[in-house]
Amino acid sequence: MEYSFLLFAFICGLSVKLIGIPPLVGYLLAGFILHAVGFNATEELTTIANLGITIMLFTIGLKLNIRDLGRREVWANSLLHTTAWVALCSSILYGAAVVISYLTELSIASALLIAFALSFSSTVCVVKVLEESGESKTRHGKIAIGVLVMQDIFAVVFMVVATGKIPSVYALLLLLLIPLMPVFYRIINKSGHGELLPLTGFIFALGGYHLFEAVNIKGDLGALLAGLLLARHGKAVELAKSLMSFKDLFLIGFFLSIGLTALPDTPMLLTGLALCLLLPLKFAMFYFLFMALRLRARTAFLSSLVLGNYSEFGLIVGALAVSLGMLDANWLVIIAISVSTSFVFTSIAYKSSHQQYNRFKESLKRFEKTERLNEDIYPVMTNAQFLVIGMGRVGIGAFTSLSNLAKDVVWGMDADRAKINSLKHQGHNVVLGDGEDIDLWENLDMSQVRLILLALPSIEDAINVTSQLKQAKYEGKIAAIARYQDEVDILLDNGVDKVFNFFTDAGLGFAEESLSYIGDHPAAK
């Protein structure tokens, strides 16, 4: 049965990918079709889905800086948005109940519960979309993830209050995990770089989950905090990457299970779709709150766009309310329709997010505050002639080689603040910046830059950066890395001047360096 589900999910995922739509839309569609022909979610599929969420929360923790949650634009926006949304959305729902016969039995308490369930943004959808676009470590990506974590905390608090289930007195023993951190760090060090590393990640993620469940605290919070405790380890990023494919595979079960939730009748379907008409309101509330907190228009726009959906946590909150007799069971089906439909909207809308911002940026920037946050002040590059964008392993290698030849006219750029701070501490010429930010390029002095090297993880990123540079009237040359042969022509067709095949050119460089080490060359024979 599960194999048939996965096979159909693969067919639907591949089909929508071929027409330029993210695969997760196909997985949702597969769930709806399977349910329409009589299938239901199985216990095994639910287990796979839950495992995917647990691993995802653990990897979020691994990449999360606790200081990000303390930023005003994160905690203040989360609190204000949830409060304002619940007040406004519940008023709209209760007002609609007066004129729509299907909703006549909706009470104020029910309207408040539904509004609260719809106040959350989807952790699964947002993280998936950000990772697919390579933007989880950008300014807007970190803000969005910070808001999600705050919302998850609100949900946990609600469930504790609603069930009257308070944490066990043994919960205090969880504090003993802190002095055990050196032991956990040693375990990660000894796990190496092979198959034992992702297994170690599974042990920590599931261990955190079950420890918290054992003391009457939501296990998902335990997985998140387990990742957070290990985030400062030197192998945290490697550990997160080793779990990426497992997480993506298990989350297919989650998207399928959403579609398999229930089969709605026509009024339920129409009500669920009607609730999606409130998504632009959700986006607008996020955007104007971000602007009031002095974010740049682009950061506010992208953060709001990716957060403009409904959450799987809404289903959890709704299911709890139904089980406690606080909400009619039909509303769980309606919320499921709204949640899954919102995933589709976000996945499709965010695919062209940078183009949308470029189109509307003049209107959006009218709401910017004169005084900027320190994180949003544009950087300055002095005498830059060569710029490396993306300071991962390949980028740092290129940056170091160029610096040895051209010294101080070489600069590096990355969207990861922690990485940039570390490189600055080492004395390198680097700036914090998102290469896909058209405002950044329009405010940087690029007149002397002769060559830009794109050392980015995906060709989509390289294509987007190239497009922004062309729009900003950059006249120098652009070079990029391709990991596969079929990507070379795609990059060249999209404006890149020179493309290096990562594996072919790495092998050539390795051979040349090795021969120079022994002072020999085949041509000399």
From TrEMBL:
<keyword id="KW-0406">Ion transport</keyword>
<keyword id="KW-0050">Antiport</keyword>
<keyword id="KW-0813">Transport</keyword>
<dbReference type="InterPro" id="IPR038770">
    <property type="entry name" value="Na+/solute_symporter_sf"/>
</dbReference>
<feature type="domain" description="RCK N-terminal">
    <location>
        <begin position="383"/>
        <end position="500"/>
    </location>
</feature>
<feature type="transmembrane region" description="Helical">
    <location>
        <begin position="331"/>
        <end position="350"/>
    </location>
</feature>
<dbReference type="GO" id="GO:0006813">
    <property type="term" value="P:potassium ion transport"/>
</dbReference>
<comment type="similarity">
    <text>Belongs to the monovalent cation:proton antiporter 2 (CPA2) transporter (TC 2.A.37) family.</text>
</comment>
<keyword id="KW-1133">Transmembrane helix</keyword>
<feature type="transmembrane region" description="Helical">
    <location>
        <begin position="168"/>
        <end position="188"/>
    </location>
</feature>
<dbReference type="GO" id="GO:0015297">
    <property type="term" value="F:antiporter activity"/>
</dbReference>
<dbReference type="Pfam" id="PF00999">
    <property type="entry name" value="Na_H_Exchanger"/>
</dbReference>
<feature type="transmembrane region" description="Helical">
    <location>
        <begin position="108"/>
        <end position="131"/>
    </location>
</feature>
<feature type="transmembrane region" description="Helical">
    <location>
        <begin position="195"/>
        <end position="211"/>
    </location>
</feature>
<dbReference type="GO" id="GO:0016020">
    <property type="term" value="C:membrane"/>
</dbReference>
<dbReference type="GO" id="GO:1902600">
    <property type="term" value="P:proton transmembrane transport"/>
</dbReference>
<dbReference type="InterPro" id="IPR036291">
    <property type="entry name" value="NAD(P)-bd_dom_sf"/>
</dbReference>
<keyword id="KW-0812">Transmembrane</keyword>
<protein>
    <submittedName>
        <fullName>Potassium transporter Kef</fullName>
    </submittedName>
</protein>
<dbReference type="InterPro" id="IPR003148">
    <property type="entry name" value="RCK_N"/>
</dbReference>
<feature type="transmembrane region" description="Helical">
    <location>
        <begin position="269"/>
        <end position="293"/>
    </location>
</feature>
<dbReference type="InterPro" id="IPR006153">
    <property type="entry name" value="Cation/H_exchanger_TM"/>
</dbReference>
<dbReference type="Pfam" id="PF02254">
    <property type="entry name" value="TrkA_N"/>
</dbReference>
<feature type="transmembrane region" description="Helical">
    <location>
        <begin position="143"/>
        <end position="162"/>
    </location>
</feature>
<feature type="transmembrane region" description="Helical">
    <location>
        <begin position="78"/>
        <end position="102"/>
    </location>
</feature>
<feature type="transmembrane region" description="Helical">
    <location>
        <begin position="305"/>
        <end position="325"/>
    </location>
</feature>
<feature type="transmembrane region" description="Helical">
    <location>
        <begin position="45"/>
        <end position="66"/>
    </location>
</feature>
<feature type="transmembrane region" description="Helical">
    <location>
        <begin position="7"/>
        <end position="33"/>
    </location>
</feature>
<keyword id="KW-0472">Membrane</keyword>
